[in-house]
Design a protein that fits this description.
The chain is an alpha+beta fold. The chain folds into two domains: about 15-75, Arc Repressor Mutant, subunit A, CATH 1.10.10; about 85-160, Glutaredoxin (3-Layer(aba) Sandwich), CATH 3.40.30. It is about 40% helix and about 10% strand. It contains seven helices and four strands. It has a four-stranded mixed β-sheet, covered by helices on one side. The longest helix has 12 residues, at about 35-45. The protein is elongated. The chain starts with 13 loop residues before the first helix and ends with a helix. About 30% of the residues are buried.
């Protein structure tokens, strides 16, 4: 359950705090749960604001700079608002050789957005990703939590027409 209308500067909810601390309990050092803690916030809010990052850093006994380093390194933590569904378009060498540029262009044309853009209805954000770990099924993309293999234009039309919630 995600509430992107929540104020950016609002405090973490009791549920968020409990989940972050639960994740931290699995590690000898609380900081070991840095990615999981950020994922908790993102699950509820859709992205991790500066204020949320500061609160998670406090919970995990980390400096804001340390946690921000983790957040900006891990490309599945969003530090800016994104659409309800994120389309991750793999642009690794394997996917590129097998047509990911054409797939990305078709998505851009169809949705009217470039990399980093979000559709006007807030449904989709299009982002590049270095690898989705399915090079043997290139080109690949991920829409929300669904990985799509061997994507071609016909399959892409089906994926975008489905627009599953």
């Amino acid at each position: 359950m995600r509430d992107q209308d929540m104020r950016v500067d609002s405090q973490l909810s009791e549920a968020e705090i409990a989940e972050v601390l639960e994740e931290a309990s699995h590690y000898p050092e609380k900081s070991g749960a840095s990615i999981e803690g950020l994922k908790v916030v993102q699950k509820y809010r859709g992205w991790v604001s500066n204020e949320s990052l500061k609160q998670v850093a406090d919970l995990l006994d980390m400096s804001v700079e340390e946690l921000d380093g983790v957040a900006t390194f891990y490309n599945l933590i969003y530090r800016q608002p994104v659409g309800r569904k994120v389309i991750l378009c793999c642009d690794s060498v394997s996917c590129w050789m097998l047509g990911s540029d054409n797939i990305k262009q078709k998505i851009s044309d169809r949705l009217g957005i470039e990399y980093g853009g979000t559709t006007s209805d807030g449904e989709y954000t299009l982002l590049p990703i270095v690898c989705l770990g399915a090079c043997d099924h290139a080109p690949v993309l991920m829409v929300g939590d669904e990985l799509h293999h061997n994507v071609d234009e016909a399959q892409l039309d089906q994926i975008l027409n489905t627009r599953a919630s």
